[in-house]
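Q: Got a minute? One more chain.
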Amino acid sequence: MVDRLQRLLSRLAQIMAWLAGLGLVSMVAIVVLDVLARHLAPGFSIHGAIELVALLMVVVGFFGLPAAFDRRTHLNVEVATAAAPASLRRGLDVFWSLVGAGGVLFLCWMALDTGIYLQRTGQVTEILHIKPLVTYGIAAFGLGVALLAALNGALGIAQGRVSVENSTEL
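A: Always. Here it is, folded:
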């Protein structure tokens, strides 16, 4: 059962990473097309381009996080722990994974809380009328999946399923 959930989480993180990449390509395309449109037809621009790019930036930023936690490709700066025994490094990795999960949980809660507050005030974006809960909901969803991936990583390290050497080091 746990293996199934871990595979599902990894698959979801992978899909979200692909969506983040697609969002990045879309952002570039929208900006390039908008600049070309303004150059070729002065006074013309793509309606809502800035708001759409801002929304896609949220997708790119927050949908890439789960894959980083799932694949343990976030950066580790090891100064004092490089020569430490594997058991100490494992304990520290679990500890810092849990600290990271706590930070992600806080950010997720803040995103939802802010989105709900702004939604209640009736705010929308000026041109496309995007409701705040859409933007903050995307952020909260990405952070929620990142939280699950961080907790899964901490569990994997604690159980010895994930190597403490399996990370990108600086």
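A: The helical segments are 2-40, 49-63, 65-71, 86-120, 132-159.
Q: Perfect, thanks.
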